[in-house]
Amino acid sequence: MLNPVTPAFEARLRDVLPDHAIRQAAPRYLEEPRGRYAGQVGLMVSPTDVGQVSALVAACNDARVGVLPYGGGTGLVGGQISEASPAPVLLSMERMAAIRAVFPEENVLIAESGAILADVQAAADRAGRLFPLSLASEGSARIGGNLATNAGGTGVLRYGNARDLCLGLEAVLPDGRIWNGLTRLRKDNTGYDLRNLLIGSEGTLGIITAATLKLSAIPAVTGTGLFVVASPKAALSLLSMARDALGEGISAFELIHRQGFDFLAETLPQVRRPFDQPPEWSVLIDVGLPRGLDAQGALAGLFEMAMQEGLVDDGLIAQSQAQSDEFWAVREHIPEANRLIGSVSSHDISVPLGALAEFITRGEEAIAAIGEFRINCFGHVGDGNLHFNVFPMPGRNRQDHAEDRPRIKAAVHDLVHELGGSISAEHGIGRLKVADLERYGDPVKLAAMRAIKDALDPNGIMNPGAVLRAS
Ligand SMILES: Cc1cc2nc3c(=O)[nH]c(=O)nc-3n(C[C@H](O)[C@H](O)[C@H](O)COP(=O)(O)OP(=O)(O)OC[C@H]3O[C@@H](n4cnc5c(N)ncnc54)[C@H](O)[C@@H]3O)c2cc1C
């Protein structure tokens, strides 16, 4: 059983932390991007070094007070928001945002966990390197949050997700001890991999305070194409063709449905839409190739081959960086357009590539059987990861469909499960999907997760109620 923050506990914290570290939480720390939760916090703490994080966590553990780790607050599953009582201490990492070191010749960068993702990308770029994790939320999301959620985004196809981009971690365990695992090694088979346990644990096993990150070479030439495809199945055949032709040169491959363009027209008309008539299905392709190759020529050759196979029937190849940015602006503004429309139910799912077209067809049928809705299906199709989001028809709003939401979610997740997929491809479990994890998760895996949680955090102070039900 956890305890609330009392004046006596706050006084004890003031003994071990500087005054400036303890603050009142402004309203923005209690909100989340989709407005689904209203947060409660007993106190907010913003440490400036790992010693302060350690002192805070140790004090919370002694007093059995919950700790809620907070990065950029862009998580989409309520992991950074607690509505439960007693309200936990919100631990914001925003003042630990330094880039500690860059080793360009090793392709390594060490950042504190409060560094904003875009700042990590910029630091890598200044060193002539690429940090390829890329999300529409990169201007706010912090690297600790990215690792805690094992974030994906548009570069996974080529570079992997956050887990694949991390060599080592510094972290504070639930009893306050500091684990120094900030290794720069690429090979280290010395027992259990604590780094991989903490990555994706959503703040339930410890606080990530710094990370060693893997960098890559910046592709010498890049190009962007927006191709109209006949169907999602044709999009996957195009991906296979593109990989045969260009190998690892395919940096991103994103599926966009007409609904995405329509929502942009409705909510964000200032975002330029490249087609006069929005295509039913299109894919946004990025290629990045070594010096001496011609990215636009490669895309043109791919388009021609795909045309001959009947996979594409129209397309645009960016003629400048500005035009490439314009194509990407469409993709990157779709989440904001979705937010402005207001989904009835959003699903971040993955299925094996071979089952993806079937998922879309059967998913649309299952939703139509429940009622009249608009579906915006888009995402990282090359990873088998789709955002299959269900919206009200014009003139209605999400509250009108509150009773439909559980049926919609169950219909989509049952289908994903049947097809061997995942009910959370990249956003995590947070508080939103705890019941789904219990319903669809493998029981042996769930029991092992519970045993790990109880072993590392016997008092259950770390992000109580996220991922696993508070015990
Ligand atoms: C417009 C938009 C687009 C997005 N696109 C993508 C996408 O393409 N791919 C994707 O994967 N996600 C996406 N997201 C979701 C979100 O941006 C990611 O989950 C991101 O990794 C969260 O980082 P954050 O710093 O905001 O974490 P927060 O939201 O602050 O926290 C997320 C979780 O991590 C925990 N946490 C945070 N920091 C730490 C830490 N230092 N140590 C331990 N635990 C911690 C929190 O307790 C919480 O459980 C998107 C979100 C938005 C709003």
Q: Which terms summarize this structure?
A:
Uridine Diphospho-n-acetylenolpyruvylglucosamine Reductase, domain 3, 471 residues, Alpha-Beta Plaits, four-stranded mixed beta sheet, 34% helix, alpha+beta, Uridine Diphospho-n-acetylenolpyruvylglucosamine Reductase, domain 2
List the helices and strands and how they pair.
Blueprint: H1 7-16, E1 22-23, E2 43-45, H2 50-63, E3 67-70, E4 89-92, E5 99-103, E6 108-112, H3 117-126, E7 129-130, H4 143-148, H5 156-159, E8 166-172, E9 178-181, H6 194-198, E10 207-214, E11 216-217, E12 221-229, H7 232-246, E13 250-257, H8 258-267, E14 281-289, H9 295-308, E15 312-317, H10 321-341, E16 348-350, H11 356-370, E17 374-378, E18 385-391, H12 405-418, H13 434-440, H14 443-456
Helix pairs in contact: 1-2, 7-9, 8-10, 11-12
This protein binds flavin-adenine dinucleotide.
The helix content, as a percent range, equals 25-40%
Distance between the termini: 8 Å
Question: What percent of residues are in strands?
Answer: 15-25%
Unreliable spans are none
Count the beta strands: 18
Shape: globular
Major sheet size, sense and barrel closure: 5 strands, antiparallel
Task: Please state the average pLDDT score.
Answer: 96
The total number of structural domains is 4
Bound molecules: flavin-adenine dinucleotide
Radius of gyration: 23 Å
Q: Indicate the CATH architecture of the largest domain.
A: 2-Layer Sandwich
Number of helices: 14
Q: Tell me the strand order in the biggest sheet.
A: 5-6-10-8-9
Structural class designation? alpha+beta
CATH top level assignment of the largest domain: Alpha Beta
